[in-house]
Amino acid sequence: MNKALKNVRRKVLVVEDERINREILGNILQGGYEVVFAEDGQRAVDILRADYDTISLILLDLMMPVMSGEEVLKICRADDNLSDIPIIVMTQDEDAEVSIIRAGADDFIKKPYNMPEVILARCERIIDLYEKKRLIDSAEIDLLTGLYSNEFFFEYIKQMEKYSDSKMDAVAMDIEHFHLVNEIYGRAEGDRILKRIASMIMAELSDSYGIACRSAADTFYIYNQSLLDYEKLAEKILKDIEAVTFENAKIRLRIGINRDVDRNDLPEQWFDHAKLACDELRGDYTRQIAFYDSAAHDKQLYHERLIRDIDTSIANKDFTVFFQPKYGIEGDEPELRSAEALIRWNHPELGMISPGDFIPLFEDNGLVQKLDRFVWEEAASQIAKWKDKFGFAVPVSVNVSRIDIFDPDLEDRLLGLLDKYGLTTNELLLEITESAYSDSAKRLIEVVNNLRDKGFKIEMDDFGSGYSSLNMLTTIPIDVLKMDMKFVRNMLNDDKSLKLCELVMDISRFLDVPVVAEGVEEKAQLDKLKDMGCQIIQGYYFSKPLPADQFEELLAK
Ligand code: C2E
Ligand code: MG
Ligand code: MG
């Protein structure tokens, strides 16, 4: 017996025209059940119609006046309210068994009633069976919409998967601001809309290989063969709802589609992804449908991971600073002049991550400031150590991101570092990328002017990659031009790049500032640049960026 209901007394309807039989059955059942009696079929039907939801079992005699047992059986089986009440037929006629069961009875008891234990056991078993079945039915179906419940939906998908490997879509459909519909128009209206949507989905699926469920209040999941025209379905639903609802309720559907699901993932993930696409549409009134894109999703997850880990990684020193030497090439022998500080992230689980993967991300959300402060501090302390050890300072450039420019404390922060480590503005240099100049020229020129007034040297990084106008260049305060790497990379096999290198050299002469050529990997590039008058080289030809101790070995030489 169903455990939760163990202590509830079930009600049994005994339908029997002979008083003596009613009394015998009454005596047998009364210990465990509440018993109601009907002395003919019509009376039984009346009681059932009034009380169907409290009666757990019918014991039915066949031969009765007014209305026969068979007739009652027929009526019960044809009536939605009565069809799931179990019926045990009582008969003298052993041969009638089969036809009785065929007519819809669940079991039979033989007259006369001389085995009370058997009768009780049969009653109990049938009631239990029916209750279990009802429990399963109710868990399978969402009572409001008649669609599957969430849990059974996934159960059925797993069943379907056993028999089919055709292309399937996972679809999540959501109503924008549905809670407002409930609040403004009442829950009943909200329910009506949900039912309407559910029945349209069901109709749409009726002749395709698909199923649907209501996964949450206003979210529907559809799993079906990649056939449906979702745009059309949405249109249809909206039109239908408009027709049956109050005038001003503008319902908006969002549909996220995970097309041709990846069977390496779990069904739950298919729908997580569909829902993700669906949620992307929140507040976007230009689109109604979004497709899940796994590459974009992976990238998003990766970025979220990096953002989540930045603080712990700073605290655990997973970030370190490397130093790449810059060489003066004007004399006969190249000479180590200075270095650029470049951040490295040795993530405990993801391994080495290139700055190209995280700097742009952290520039977008402002987190790059944290990293820059870390790098500046590390670089300053390292310069001071070397100064101590070798008796001379190697100037080190640090990158200043476009975000830092808007930090009102930038100047104080940098001056504070010089103070803390006993450095001068000739020892800690600043690189600012050219594109920052074109982003916010006015503010940047102001900030850079102030920094230069304090003595800082500014190198314009990646020069040639941005869109500085010649006019702007003449007004811009800079001390060094760092030629964008891609000119150097292509200078030997692409005439245009070579010409651009020459142009950068001309501009530098015009501005009267030295040029640093980055990305020099080959002797031929170096020679060419030297011919053009380039004074400083940074590149793998001399050295990759190095950890502090390896850079120190270079210094010692
Ligand atoms: P960048 O400031 O232009 O730095 C030069 C980049 O070129 C470095 O890449 C360096 O390793 C690379 N490089 C130098 N010589 C060669 C060469 O011969 N061949 C090739 N293929 N590459 C060379 P890295 O360290 O991967 O940094 C990339 C960019 O990330 C940097 O470009 C800079 O914009 C940014 N970045 C790095 N560290 C920091 C930092 O601490 N703060 C900020 N805001 N940005 C940083
Ligand atoms: Mg740089
Ligand atoms: Mg650069």
Set out the fold topology.
Blueprint: E1 11-15, H1 19-29, E2 34-38, H2 41-51, E3 55-61, H3 69-78, E4 87-91, H4 97-102, E5 107-110, H5 116-140, H6 150-163, E6 168-175, H7 178-185, H8 187-205, E7 210-216, E8 219-225, H9 230-244, E9 253-258, H10 267-280, E10 289-291, H11 294-315, E11 319-328, E12 335-347, E13 351-353, H12 355-365, H13 368-390, E14 396-400, H14 410-421, E15 428-433, H15 434-439, H16 441-453, E16 458-463, H17 470-475, E17 480-483, H18 485-490, H19 495-511, E18 515-518, H20 523-532, E19 536-538, E20 546-547, H21 548-556
Parallel strand pairs: 1-2, 1-3, 3-4, 4-5, 9-10, 12-14, 14-15, 15-16, 16-17, 17-18, 18-19
Antiparallel strand pairs: 6-8, 6-9, 7-8, 11-12, 11-19, 11-20, 12-13
Question: Which terms would index this structure?
Answer:
TIM Barrel, Rossmann fold, 8-stranded mixed beta barrel, 48% helix, binds ligand C2E, 557 residues, binds magnesium ion, disordered N terminus, alpha/beta, elongated
Mind explaining what this structure looks like?
- There is one protein chain.
- Helix 2 (41-51) runs parallel beside helix 3, helix 7 crosses helix 8 (187-205) and helix 8 runs antiparallel to helix 9 (230-244).
- The chain has three domains: 3-140, Response regulator (Rossmann fold); 150-292, Alpha-Beta Plaits (2-Layer Sandwich), CATH 3.30.70.270; 306-552, Alpha-Beta Barrel (TIM Barrel), CATH 3.20.20.450.
- With 557 residues, the protein is an alpha/beta fold.
- Residues 1-6 have low confidence and may be disordered.
- An eight-stranded mixed β-barrel has the order 11-12-14-15-16-17-18-19, surrounded by four helices. Strands 2-1-3-4-5 form a five-stranded parallel beta sheet, with helices on both faces.
- Strand 11 (319-328) and strand 12 (335-347) form a beta hairpin.
- The chain binds ligand C2E and magnesium ion (2 copies).
- One magnesium ion (MG) is lined by residues 461-462, 482, 518.
